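Predict the assembly for these two chains.
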Amino acid sequence: MAQVKPSIPKGTRDFSPVEMAKRNYIFNTIRDVYGLYGYQQIETPSMENLSTLMGKYGEEGDKLLFKILDSGNFLADVKPEELQDGGTAKLAARICEKGLRYDLTVPFARFVVMHQNELAFPFKRYQIQPVWRADRPQKGRYREFFQCDADVVGSDSLLNEVELIQIIDEVFRRFGIRVAIKMNNRKILAGIAEVIGAPELLVDITVAIDKLDKIGLDNVNVELREKGLNEEQIAKLQPIIKLEGENRQKLTTIKQTLSASAVGMKGVEELEYILSKVEKLGGTDCQLDIDLTLARGLNYYTGAIFEVKALDVEMGSITGGGRYDNLTGVFGMPGMSGVGISFGADRIYDVLNQLNLYPTDALQSTQLLFVTFGEAEQDFCLPLLAALRKSGVRTEIYPDARAKMKKQMTYANAKQIPYVVIVGSDEVASGEVSLKNMITGEQVKVKADELVSKFYK
Amino acid sequence: MAQVKPSIPKGTRDFSPVEMAKRNYIFNTIRDVYGLYGYQQIETPSMENLSTLMGKYGEEGDKLLFKILDSGNFLADVKPEELQDGGTAKLAARICEKGLRYDLTVPFARFVVMHQNELAFPFKRYQIQPVWRADRPQKGRYREFFQCDADVVGSDSLLNEVELIQIIDEVFRRFGIRVAIKMNNRKILAGIAEVIGAPELLVDITVAIDKLDKIGLDNVNVELREKGLNEEQIAKLQPIIKLEGENRQKLTTIKQTLSASAVGMKGVEELEYILSKVEKLGGTDCQLDIDLTLARGLNYYTGAIFEVKALDVEMGSITGGGRYDNLTGVFGMPGMSGVGISFGADRIYDVLNQLNLYPTDALQSTQLLFVTFGEAEQDFCLPLLAALRKSGVRTEIYPDARAKMKKQMTYANAKQIPYVVIVGSDEVASGEVSLKNMITGEQVKVKADELVSKFYK
């Protein structure tokens, strides 16, 4: 076995105990809220058959799939001319049957189709698992990262959209992150395209409108002209571009503009339903804004579109989602409408770090360390540890009885253990131990058998 | 996009909501107990560089590694003659830089070496993550499965062994599984080999002794003779083969037999220390048996060896572990002694299933479903749901207001929701809802605003 200087693949990460505590806090918070709304957890295998994955993420996505080399003699069925063909994508498909999960949506669709007879519809599931993409790694972009998706399929009720907004609101309330939920509807975008008669320019239009704050109305109109819109079309768009005010006002303006489009008006109706239900529930803690420039997943979403931005940190979208009409069609199960959201755990992690919002409790591991000076003292302490642990207090004893006090205290500090119990021969004799608060430095004598009641909550 | 009949790779599994609830119960129980003893969680990437993994699991292990095909033009640096060479293992190494984690131990060693300057030693870590092996799938053996390891490195104190026994004891006490912890020590086995002068036959000897119950003493001796031991050697082994009684008695016999072997006597001393500390702590709930036939990880473990068997189910070992002297040497960091255990989550899952030991609480998802008959009723219910969720009650409303009652009740049953609130126009008018216990069928009227106090714990 040759010695290797160890490293990990680029774009991947180790998670230290502190990082894990923070991540668990995020995942547990999201998990708890999903659970409150009746979403149930599933997991799917890390590997899927490439036949399940290929063609679902566009040509670029196919390239970003991590493919797993077949076991054994993987060249057995490959002809020499295939090797010389140079077509590595084709050859890859010949020597790799499996690939790593690229997202949680396609595996979920595959799951629903495979297990359709065991599931209760509407099926509300959540899934928190890593996904892998052979993307070029860069700041904030990893080759292995977690997604936290919740979807409900088999129901076209807009109440699902309402509840997903409540879930987003509750999760960020618990995190203490101030956010705005931006909301749009694919049908409204379709209505705009219909009204101005230029569906092929829809993306250009939303991109241009999105620049209003930065470049001003005149320049937006210049850009629209450059993209090929004529004056009449641009005139029709003006109320949409200048859209302002409360959500109700915005809806009124949109209605006037899109009155000629049936699909556009359907989109307005959906937004109105969602807003009115949310209001009946006392509104949300966070801002809830209609934003027509929101155009994520245009060739995927068919109704509501959501996106969440943190208000106090410069950062891209930290949560997103929307409604789709045909999740499972590609696997032979048509007509399965659904709506879902996905929390961006890595970005939320960064936001919580930047705003220093992690609760101390969530990050603490060991609460109490016993520092001793010999085997007799260790023997004195062991039953105390057992009693504390029985009461749920996370307790350690420094294992090496010969270690110097300084070494043991350094260990306590490095692990950020808030309390230390110091036990020497005097303490054993008197039955009173020294309890030190490692943050304040305060040290008091405590009867050994009163330790549990001091820490038990 | 062609329609494909969906399937998953052989040896992998989907986990349904009920299976996930059971698995989470197992993982959370183990996690909580690890935490009580000061073990902290880490995670490592699913992919490691193949240079980290290769050569660590023997030749067979190298073959069982899942290798990940390099992105892009993976044949760019491969010469035509390498392709014709037929040596697929060699070629695999040329076109794959990364592989999937095979266990948690090697990545942990790599982690310790890479992060040695950030860690507080002794470093107590636990890790609960999937591993992948290209093994032939069969009943109970999967290509993707979870390991739940705890290790402490940087301490040779036997107190660590004592605490790991306490951890095993506590975990199975919480599960309600009656187990026996079998304990051996590599040094005692070395002592036996030394005393009879046949170290190369050590494995044969332990295998033969292990058959005592099945084939009887005479046949064990016949087998030892066949394996090449002479009469003097067999005579010396008799007390070890017939080893009986309490652990103390066993230790006395072993001491007499191995008195001439320094290493053997060291092993006895270690076992004595561990047993005496465990006794001082009031012993264990589970059986704790010295078992010299326990010979797992012979070329790996250097001190204590542990194995756990369930008493009420026919099943292989459900937990194992031991001490090793040089975890990180292969990565250039010598002298790092450690000891660890690993819970076999999949087998524990099966044992809990067979003995029907899952607590009802752990498996329950939604506690309460609102069944309604129209939008007005839904509107009446929405604030009630919000209040219940605010109190931590996992609550759902059937999203489609037009759905028939039967459909909604079927949904409740399929999800095993224990309580249903039924709200029609009468209930809205009176402010009293019908609360139905889905298990007993009992149905009572409850004031809407008293629902929370009924469910809040």
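Chain B is about 45% helix and 20% strand. The longest helix of chain B spans residues 17-36.
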